[in-house]
Amino acid sequence: MTDQDELIPVGKIIGTHGIKGFLKVHSYSGNIQSLQSAQTVLLRGKNGTLNEYGIKSVAAHAGGFILSLDDFSDINQVLFLTGSELCLKRSQLPVPDEDEYYWSDLIGLTVQTDQGVELGTLVDIFETGSSDIYVVRGESKEYLIPAIADVVASVDVPGKKMIITPLDGLLDL
């Protein structure tokens, strides 16, 4: 698989919507443009199987999306898709701006302070109203790091490293 074919998780199917085969999607980014411009989407089932489907329509709905796939027109046809992860190929996504990253590029980075203290590995990211929060798991402690310019000093994706400048008390929580 080339870098352009690399799969980027963009959301998860959390349920059905109505009786005509529409799916409710929790978006990992809140960005609908990528899905709207894509012709197809890959769904990774709970058992790891990967299937590609044509996209009929995508619409914003209640903080997520409503997705309609080609060849599905009834709720009973799509029930099995609930819980599947929505993925796009990297080639289907826009190139991020400078200082912007896809979550999948950040998961797995080693995080250390600007003083050289290694905190652990970035294992998860979640959204809050104002900024994302990076979950960094160390040997004996987990840290919640706000993804803000005052804290994140540098990100080196190829080098798999993130340097942070912790705010007073941040690492004591």
Task: Describe the model.
- The protein is mainly β.
- Helices cover 8% and strands 46% of the residues.
- It is built from three helices and twelve strands, in the order ββαβββαβαββββββ.
- A six-stranded antiparallel beta barrel has the order 1-2-5-4-3-6. It has a six-stranded mixed sheet with strand order 10-9-8-7-12-11, with no helix packed on it.
- The longest helix has 5 residues, at 33-37.
- The radius of gyration is 18 Å and the shape is elongated.
- It starts with 6 loop residues before the first strand and ends in a 9-residue tail after the last strand.
Arrangement of strands in the largest sheet: 1-2-5-4-3-6
In the CATH hierarchy, what is the architecture of the largest domain at level 2?
A: Beta Barrel
Helix content: under 10%
Q: How many domains in all?
A: 2
Count of separate DSSP helical elements = 3
Describe this protein with a few key phrases.
single chain, 173 residues, mainly beta, Elongation Factor Tu (Ef-tu), domain 3, SH3 type barrels, 6-stranded mixed beta sheet, 3 helices, elongated
